[in-house]
Amino acid sequence: MSHNRESDANDPMATWMRQLSKDPAERSHRPLPDPDLLWMKAQLLDRQTAKERSLRLVRWFETMARILVAFAAYWLGSALANAFAVPELKFLNPTLLSLAVSIVLVAVTMLAFPIWSED
Amino acid sequence: MNQTVFREFYSKTAPALRSYIARSCGSYDLAEDVMQEAFLRFLRTAPADMEGPAMKGYLYRTADSLLIDHWRRENRSKRWSLDMIFRKDQTPDRGASDDVSEAFRELKPQQRSLLWLAYVEGFDHREIADAAGVKESSVKVLLFRARKALAAVLEGK
Protein backbone atom coordinates (compact mmCIF):
# COMPACT_ATOMS: atom_id res chain seq x y z
CA MET A 1 0.00 0.00 0.00
CA SER A 2 2.78 2.44 -0.86
CA HIS A 3 0.67 4.46 -3.30
CA ASN A 4 -0.87 6.47 -0.53
CA ARG A 5 2.25 7.29 1.41
CA GLU A 6 3.48 10.84 1.81
CA SER A 7 7.10 10.25 2.72
CA ASP A 8 9.01 11.37 -0.36
CA ALA A 9 12.74 11.82 0.21
CA ASN A 10 12.85 15.09 -1.75
CA ASP A 11 9.81 16.61 -0.12
CA PRO A 12 10.92 19.50 2.18
CA MET A 13 8.02 18.70 4.48
CA ALA A 14 9.29 15.15 4.90
CA THR A 15 12.78 16.47 5.63
CA TRP A 16 11.43 18.92 8.19
CA MET A 17 9.34 16.26 9.87
CA ARG A 18 12.28 13.87 10.03
CA GLN A 19 14.31 16.58 11.71
CA LEU A 20 11.43 17.10 14.11
CA SER A 21 11.20 13.41 14.88
CA LYS A 22 14.68 13.28 16.39
CA ASP A 23 13.90 12.67 20.01
CA PRO A 24 14.69 15.84 21.98
CA ALA A 25 14.86 13.77 25.16
CA GLU A 26 17.45 11.50 23.52
CA ARG A 27 19.67 14.51 22.95
CA SER A 28 19.50 15.23 26.66
CA HIS A 29 20.58 11.59 27.29
CA ARG A 30 17.39 10.55 29.04
CA PRO A 31 17.02 6.77 29.02
CA LEU A 32 13.65 5.29 28.18
CA PRO A 33 11.70 3.85 31.10
CA ASP A 34 12.17 0.11 31.57
CA PRO A 35 9.56 -1.83 29.54
CA ASP A 36 9.63 -4.72 32.04
CA LEU A 37 8.53 -2.38 34.82
CA LEU A 38 5.66 -1.13 32.67
CA TRP A 39 4.69 -4.71 31.92
CA MET A 40 4.68 -5.61 35.61
CA LYS A 41 2.69 -2.50 36.52
CA ALA A 42 0.09 -3.36 33.90
CA GLN A 43 -0.17 -6.92 35.24
CA LEU A 44 -0.58 -5.65 38.80
CA LEU A 45 -3.25 -3.14 37.79
CA ASP A 46 -5.09 -5.85 35.85
CA ARG A 47 -5.04 -8.16 38.86
CA GLN A 48 -6.25 -5.38 41.14
CA THR A 49 -9.12 -4.57 38.77
CA ALA A 50 -10.11 -8.25 38.55
CA LYS A 51 -10.05 -8.52 42.34
CA GLU A 52 -12.20 -5.41 42.76
CA ARG A 53 -14.67 -6.73 40.19
CA SER A 54 -15.00 -10.07 41.95
CA LEU A 55 -15.39 -8.41 45.34
CA ARG A 56 -18.17 -6.12 44.16
CA LEU A 57 -20.86 -8.85 44.47
CA VAL A 58 -19.54 -10.01 47.84
CA ARG A 59 -19.71 -6.43 49.13
CA TRP A 60 -23.28 -6.05 47.88
CA PHE A 61 -24.31 -9.21 49.76
CA GLU A 62 -22.48 -7.99 52.85
CA THR A 63 -24.36 -4.69 52.79
CA MET A 64 -27.66 -6.51 52.39
CA ALA A 65 -26.72 -8.80 55.30
CA ARG A 66 -25.98 -5.72 57.45
CA ILE A 67 -29.39 -4.25 56.71
CA LEU A 68 -31.07 -7.55 57.57
CA VAL A 69 -29.09 -7.79 60.81
CA ALA A 70 -30.13 -4.25 61.70
CA PHE A 71 -33.82 -5.09 61.18
CA ALA A 72 -33.49 -8.37 63.07
CA ALA A 73 -31.72 -6.59 65.93
CA TYR A 74 -34.45 -3.97 66.14
CA TRP A 75 -37.09 -6.70 66.21
CA LEU A 76 -35.16 -8.63 68.87
CA GLY A 77 -34.73 -5.48 70.95
CA SER A 78 -38.47 -4.74 70.79
CA ALA A 79 -39.28 -8.33 71.74
CA LEU A 80 -36.87 -8.18 74.71
CA ALA A 81 -38.29 -4.86 75.83
CA ASN A 82 -41.80 -6.29 75.77
CA ALA A 83 -40.74 -9.49 77.52
CA PHE A 84 -39.15 -7.59 80.39
CA ALA A 85 -41.89 -5.03 80.69
CA VAL A 86 -41.96 -5.34 84.48
CA PRO A 87 -43.35 -2.39 86.50
CA GLU A 88 -40.00 -1.82 88.27
CA LEU A 89 -38.28 -1.23 84.91
CA LYS A 90 -40.92 1.20 83.61
CA PHE A 91 -38.25 3.87 83.31
CA LEU A 92 -36.72 1.86 80.43
CA ASN A 93 -38.29 3.07 77.23
CA PRO A 94 -38.90 -0.02 74.97
CA THR A 95 -38.00 1.88 71.81
CA LEU A 96 -34.75 3.18 73.26
CA LEU A 97 -33.90 -0.27 74.59
CA SER A 98 -34.52 -1.89 71.19
CA LEU A 99 -32.42 0.79 69.50
CA ALA A 100 -29.59 0.18 71.95
CA VAL A 101 -29.68 -3.56 71.29
CA SER A 102 -29.70 -2.90 67.52
CA ILE A 103 -26.69 -0.62 67.75
CA VAL A 104 -24.75 -3.14 69.80
CA LEU A 105 -25.56 -5.98 67.39
CA VAL A 106 -24.71 -3.91 64.30
CA ALA A 107 -21.46 -2.79 65.91
CA VAL A 108 -20.56 -6.40 66.67
CA THR A 109 -21.25 -7.51 63.08
CA MET A 110 -19.29 -4.56 61.69
CA LEU A 111 -16.32 -5.46 63.82
CA ALA A 112 -16.61 -9.10 62.81
CA PHE A 113 -16.99 -8.41 59.04
CA PRO A 114 -15.41 -5.07 58.13
CA ILE A 115 -16.56 -4.40 54.53
CA TRP A 116 -14.62 -1.19 54.16
CA SER A 117 -11.27 -2.77 54.81
CA GLU A 118 -8.82 -3.11 51.90
CA ASP A 119 -8.75 -6.91 51.80
CA MET B 1 0.92 -10.18 23.68
CA ASN B 2 3.68 -11.59 25.85
CA GLN B 3 6.47 -9.77 27.63
CA THR B 4 9.11 -10.41 24.96
CA VAL B 5 6.88 -9.18 22.15
CA PHE B 6 6.00 -6.12 24.21
CA ARG B 7 9.67 -5.39 24.90
CA GLU B 8 10.41 -5.47 21.18
CA PHE B 9 7.37 -3.36 20.31
CA TYR B 10 8.33 -0.88 23.03
CA SER B 11 11.91 -0.51 21.82
CA LYS B 12 10.65 0.18 18.30
CA THR B 13 7.86 2.56 19.26
CA ALA B 14 8.78 4.36 22.45
CA PRO B 15 11.50 6.77 21.18
CA ALA B 16 9.30 8.18 18.41
CA LEU B 17 6.26 8.33 20.68
CA ARG B 18 8.19 10.15 23.39
CA SER B 19 9.56 12.54 20.80
CA TYR B 20 6.05 13.18 19.43
CA ILE B 21 4.66 13.91 22.90
CA ALA B 22 7.62 16.07 23.87
CA ARG B 23 7.25 18.05 20.63
CA SER B 24 3.53 18.42 21.27
CA CYS B 25 3.74 19.57 24.88
CA GLY B 26 7.26 20.98 25.17
CA SER B 27 8.07 19.17 28.40
CA TYR B 28 10.30 16.12 28.89
CA ASP B 29 8.74 15.20 32.22
CA LEU B 30 5.20 15.37 30.97
CA ALA B 31 6.20 13.49 27.80
CA GLU B 32 7.63 10.68 29.90
CA ASP B 33 4.54 10.47 32.13
CA VAL B 34 2.14 10.52 29.20
CA MET B 35 4.17 7.95 27.30
CA GLN B 36 4.19 5.54 30.24
CA GLU B 37 0.48 6.00 30.80
CA ALA B 38 -0.18 5.44 27.09
CA PHE B 39 1.76 2.16 27.16
CA LEU B 40 -0.02 1.07 30.32
CA ARG B 41 -3.41 1.73 28.75
CA PHE B 42 -2.28 -0.01 25.62
CA LEU B 43 -1.28 -3.11 27.60
CA ARG B 44 -4.50 -3.12 29.60
CA THR B 45 -7.12 -2.19 27.02
CA ALA B 46 -5.86 -2.76 23.47
CA PRO B 47 -7.64 -5.61 21.63
CA ALA B 48 -5.51 -8.75 21.51
CA ASP B 49 -5.81 -9.18 17.73
CA MET B 50 -4.21 -5.81 16.93
CA GLU B 51 -1.16 -5.75 14.69
CA GLY B 52 1.66 -3.41 13.60
CA PRO B 53 0.32 -0.04 12.42
CA ALA B 54 -2.96 -0.45 14.30
CA MET B 55 -1.01 -0.89 17.54
CA LYS B 56 1.01 2.22 16.85
CA GLY B 57 -2.12 4.13 15.90
CA TYR B 58 -3.78 3.07 19.14
CA LEU B 59 -0.80 4.33 21.12
CA TYR B 60 -0.73 7.70 19.37
CA ARG B 61 -4.47 8.11 19.82
CA THR B 62 -4.17 7.29 23.52
CA ALA B 63 -1.27 9.71 23.94
CA ASP B 64 -3.27 12.46 22.21
CA SER B 65 -6.27 11.98 24.46
CA LEU B 66 -4.06 11.86 27.56
CA LEU B 67 -2.46 15.15 26.54
CA ILE B 68 -5.86 16.73 25.94
CA ASP B 69 -7.02 15.51 29.37
CA HIS B 70 -3.88 16.97 30.92
CA TRP B 71 -4.41 20.37 29.29
CA ARG B 72 -8.06 20.43 30.33
CA ARG B 73 -7.11 19.62 33.93
CA GLU B 74 -4.38 22.22 33.84
CA ASN B 75 -6.74 24.90 32.51
CA ARG B 76 -9.33 24.02 35.14
CA SER B 77 -6.83 24.18 37.98
CA LYS B 78 -5.35 27.42 36.61
CA ARG B 79 -8.79 28.97 36.49
CA TRP B 80 -9.37 28.21 40.16
CA SER B 81 -5.87 28.58 41.52
CA LEU B 82 -4.85 31.40 43.83
CA ASP B 83 -1.80 31.95 41.64
CA MET B 84 -4.05 33.14 38.85
CA ILE B 85 -5.93 35.45 41.18
CA PHE B 86 -2.72 37.04 42.38
CA ARG B 87 -1.23 36.89 38.86
CA LYS B 88 1.80 34.98 39.99
CA ASP B 89 3.89 33.96 36.96
CA GLN B 90 4.14 30.24 36.42
CA THR B 91 7.23 28.85 34.76
CA PRO B 92 6.34 25.56 33.09
CA ASP B 93 8.94 22.97 32.24
CA ARG B 94 9.87 23.84 28.66
CA GLY B 95 12.91 21.60 28.46
CA ALA B 96 11.94 20.12 25.12
CA SER B 97 11.10 23.45 23.56
CA ASP B 98 12.88 24.94 20.58
CA ASP B 99 11.83 26.72 17.37
CA VAL B 100 10.97 23.45 15.65
CA SER B 101 8.84 22.27 18.54
CA GLU B 102 7.13 25.62 18.89
CA ALA B 103 6.11 25.62 15.24
CA PHE B 104 4.77 22.10 15.64
CA ARG B 105 2.86 23.02 18.78
CA GLU B 106 1.02 25.81 17.01
CA LEU B 107 -0.83 23.24 14.92
CA LYS B 108 -4.09 21.67 16.03
CA PRO B 109 -3.67 18.29 17.79
CA GLN B 110 -5.25 16.42 14.87
CA GLN B 111 -2.96 18.15 12.35
CA ARG B 112 0.06 17.28 14.47
CA SER B 113 -0.82 13.62 14.68
CA LEU B 114 -1.68 13.38 10.97
CA LEU B 115 1.64 14.89 9.91
CA TRP B 116 3.55 12.73 12.35
CA LEU B 117 1.88 9.51 11.28
CA ALA B 118 2.35 10.34 7.61
CA TYR B 119 5.92 11.60 7.60
CA VAL B 120 7.61 10.10 10.64
CA GLU B 121 5.84 6.76 11.00
CA GLY B 122 5.36 6.45 7.24
CA PHE B 123 1.73 5.32 7.51
CA ASP B 124 -0.37 5.13 4.36
CA HIS B 125 -3.75 6.86 4.16
CA ARG B 126 -5.73 3.84 5.30
CA GLU B 127 -3.51 3.36 8.34
CA ILE B 128 -3.71 7.06 9.16
CA ALA B 129 -7.49 6.92 8.88
CA ASP B 130 -7.61 3.98 11.31
CA ALA B 131 -5.21 5.59 13.74
CA ALA B 132 -6.75 9.06 13.71
CA GLY B 133 -10.37 7.92 13.57
CA VAL B 134 -11.19 9.73 10.32
CA LYS B 135 -12.44 8.56 6.92
CA GLU B 136 -9.79 7.33 4.53
CA SER B 137 -11.17 9.59 1.80
CA SER B 138 -10.66 12.69 3.94
CA VAL B 139 -7.06 11.94 4.95
CA LYS B 140 -5.62 13.53 1.81
CA VAL B 141 -7.53 16.77 2.36
CA LEU B 142 -6.73 16.86 6.08
CA LEU B 143 -3.05 16.27 5.36
CA PHE B 144 -3.06 19.01 2.74
CA ARG B 145 -4.57 21.42 5.27
CA ALA B 146 -2.09 20.35 7.94
CA ARG B 147 0.84 20.92 5.57
CA LYS B 148 -0.55 24.31 4.66
CA ALA B 149 -0.98 25.24 8.31
CA LEU B 150 2.56 24.16 9.13
CA ALA B 151 3.95 26.06 6.14
CA ALA B 152 2.09 29.17 7.31
CA VAL B 153 3.49 28.79 10.84
CA LEU B 154 7.03 28.29 9.53
CA GLU B 155 6.75 31.30 7.22
CA GLY B 156 5.64 33.41 10.15
CA LYS B 157 8.74 32.44 12.16
| Uncertain regions spanning at least 5 consecutive residues of chain A | none
Q: Mean pLDDT of chain A, rounded to whole units?
A: 76
Q: H/E series of chain A, N to C?
A: HHHH
The overall pLDDT of chain B, averaged over residues, is 83
The value of Rg of chain B in angstroms is 17 Å
End-to-end Cα distance of chain A: 53 Å
CATH class of chain B: Mainly Alpha
Any idea what the shape of chain B is? globular
The number of helical elements of chain A comes to: 4
Main sheet of chain A, how many strands, which sense, barrel?
Answer: none
Going by CATH, what is the homologous superfamily of chain B? PhyR, sigma-like (SL) domain
Morphology of chain A = rod-shaped
What would your notes on this structure say?
Chain A is mainly alpha-helical. Chain A has a domain at 55-119. Chain A has helices at 12-21, 24-27, 35-83, 94-112. In chain A, helix 3 runs antiparallel to helix 4 (94-112). Chain A is rod-shaped, with a radius of gyration of 33 Å. The mean pLDDT of chain B is 83. Chain B has one domain: PhyR, sigma-like (SL) domain (Butyryl-CoA Dehydrogenase, subunit A, domain 3, Up-down Bundle). Chain B has helices at residues 3-25, 28-45, 52-80, 82-85, 99-105, 109-120, 125-132, 136-156. Chain B is 78% helix and 0% strand. With 157 residues, chain B is mainly α. Chain A binds chain B through residues 1-7, 13-14, 16-26, 28, 30, 32-33, 35-36, 38-39, 41-42, 45-46, and chain B through 3, 6-7, 10-11, 14-16, 18-20, 22-23, 28, 31-32, 35-36, 39-40, 43-44, 95-96, 98, 100-101, 104, 115-116, 118-120, 122-127, 139, 143, 147, 150-151, 154.
